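Weekly structure sync, notes
Attendees: PL, DS, HV (note-taker this week)

Item 1: ATP synthase complex subunit 8
DS walked through the input record. Source organism listed as Tachuris rubrigastra. Sequence as pasted into the shared doc:
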Amino acid sequence: MPQLNPSPWFFIMLISWYTFSFLLQPKIILFTPTNSPSNKELTTMKTTSWNWPWT
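Item 1 (cont.): predicted structure, written out as tokens:
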């Protein structure tokens, strides 16, 4: 059963984790969100009830 032989797949897994951890992750971390959170005050909306003519 060749799928149980870890020899070629273990090396591929190590190379892929190395690529992600040391090459791609620092580049991804550098991205900043375009809409940063701001300190806006919460405003509450004043609602009025609807006057139904049949009640």
